[in-house]
User: Which sequence fits this backbone?
């Protein structure tokens, strides 16, 4: 059974104290998480230890870094290696978010290196892909996203690929309040799964959790997560409000 995941991406928001309060409020809620449900807090680097401490004994709760270096270690001032994350018992790392691709010029090749390092050190990459508005308007989104997978994931073995979580995040829907319709999300997720099945096998493609990201909120999560190929969400803005994200966690199918 595929994992169903509600992943928060706090981005560069909240002070340490606000992050503590939000984490406490979320952990104080009651959820009836199923065996295959996971909640992941994607928090800024300085808060990783704090959130990892609070979630350590909470079944189904995990922590993600929002980025990692594509270098293993060494003289790279300001960078954070996956080995460092692993030594803090961080289980997930978001790789290839569109904001990193766009503002920090992260290339497909660099993302492939990050994916390799994350897997080497036992972290689960949440690999983000998704098209800009112009590509969607030209109806080239399927090809665009396919190339993103090819360039950063297709060198992996089937066994390695099975350890990856994919997040489909159409750029035009991120932080814009404009959500892909549940039908648009389903179509793309089914496409991604068929691309993975063609390169690997149906069995491998069926095991990969594919999250939707782009203005998910409490009000639309049940419908979007209810689609057969959508396995939860990567949530930005709505993950900063405890009541909203708690409702999104409860929307996992
Ligand atoms: C994101 O940053 O991954 C995201 C999906 O943001 P938002 O939910 O705010 O659109």
Assistant:
């Amino acid at each position: 059974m595929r994992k169903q995941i509600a992943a928060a991406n706090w981005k560069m928001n909240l002070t340490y104290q606000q992050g503590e309060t939000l984490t406490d409020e979320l952990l104080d809620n009651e959820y009836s998480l199923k065996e295959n449900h996971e909640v992941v807090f994607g928090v800024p680097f300085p808060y990783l230890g704090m959130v990892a401490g609070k979630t350590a004994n909470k079944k189904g709760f995990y922590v993600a870094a929002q980025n990692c270096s594509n270098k293993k270690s060494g003289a790279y001032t300001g960078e954070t290696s996956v080995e460092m994350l692993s030594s803090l018992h961080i289980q997930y790392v978001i790789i290839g978010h569109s904001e990193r691709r766009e503002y920090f010029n992260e290339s497909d090749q660099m993302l492939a290196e990050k994916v390799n390092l994350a897997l080497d050190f036992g972290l689960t990459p949440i690999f983000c892909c998704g098209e800009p508005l112009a590509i969607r308007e030209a109806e080239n989104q399927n090809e665009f996203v396919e190339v993103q997978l090819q360039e950063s994931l297709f060198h992996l073995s089937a066994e390695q690929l099975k350890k990856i979580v994919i997040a489909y995040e159409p750029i035009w829907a991120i932080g814009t309040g404009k959500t892909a319709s549940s039908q648009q999300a389903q179509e793309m997720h089914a496409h991604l799964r068929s691309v993975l099945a063609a390169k690997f096998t149906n069995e491998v493609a069926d095991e990969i959790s594919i999250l939707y990201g782009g203005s998910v909120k409490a009000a639309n999560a049940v419908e979007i997560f209810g689609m057969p190929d959508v396995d939860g969400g990567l949530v930005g803005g709505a993950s900063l409000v405890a009541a909203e994200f708690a409702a999104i966690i409860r929307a996992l199918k």
Q: What stands out?
A: The first strand starts at residue 4 and ends at 9. The beta strands are 4-9, 37-43, 61-65, 92-95, 124-129, 165-168, 210-213, 232-235.
